[in-house]
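Lecture 7, part 2: worked example. A protein chain together with 3-(2-carboxyethyl)benzoic acid.
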Amino acid sequence: MQHEARRVDLPGGLTVEPGRAPDEATLLHFALATPRTGAVGCGLEWLGGNLETEDWRMEAVVQSGRSGDIVWRRAGDLLFLALEWPDDPVADPREAVEGAYERLLSVADEAGCRHLLRAWNYLPAINAGDGDAERYRRFCLGRAAALEKLGYGDGELCAGTAIGSDEPLLRIYLLCAPLPGINIENPRQVSAYRYPRRYGPRSPSFARATAVAGANDSMLLMISGTASVVGHRSLHVDDVNGQLEEVIRNLETLLSESAQQLGRPGLAEFDHASLLRVYVRHARDWPMIERRLRERWPGIHLAGLRGDICRSDLLVEIEAVSRN
Ligand code: 3EB
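Predicted complex, written out as structure tokens:
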């Protein structure tokens, strides 16, 4: 059954395009292939593809500044915050992450932008440490504590990414607004914020996708890092082909769910207006992954990056932005 399009006020007017040179209307320029001054990076090795940069822009004048250790950029109703700090890959990141999220959320609130639309987290040695001492689980603890302290409920989370890098730098990037986006969950997956205890003392704080308004009456769908997780379990351990097919099924399901909930049938398939970042644990798997994704969704923009996925049994994770 086709749901009626949700008619709510959404933040936005945003476009995300590959390869465009940054200018005064650029809110956020992600340099994926080569580091670039004035741009944001992931700190991950570039493996290939045709999405070397992502240009997130508004038809509005961009202002920028600094508040303590947080760098901000604002365009119209969207606020981008960045916090990066040298991080010891063998230490426990919980306390630093909790403090960082508290400062970020306070700056967002003071700017009148307490609603979260998208979060990216890149941290070194994400799988180091055993059991509940794993750095990713400690990261989740710090993030959840800060969100709870500042009064964010499960419905106020946003699309997210958490990936392990090889550089000794922890990066947190947030996109915020005065109004919430629309969160969409994946019917094949337990919501991450409801994962059972066995995956760590605090569940990961993110939504499977967040939709906002795009330019020219379009909808912009931001899809979280999506891996071979069905229910709450990792499937196809040690089988990268199997994991990739499961990721594709998860993305297909999330896309059709989003198309239906948002009343935008055109969102059901990725196309030339879709930008995918593919995080790959083993660089050798990239050529096969690229070939398969191009076969499944011709015309997409793809970036391959070498990164560690937050569960040590996962080999590939894909995040995306799509507009229709
Ligand atoms: C998963 O489905 C994979 O902790 O912010 C994906 C996206 C994952 C975001 C996060 C974690 C996060 O559980 C892991």
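Helices lie at 94-110, 135-149, 240-262, 286-296. The pocket of 3-(2-carboxyethyl)benzoic acid is lined by residues 121, 160-162, 192, 204, 206, 224-225, 227, 229, 310 (CB under 6 Å). Keep this in mind for problem set question 3.
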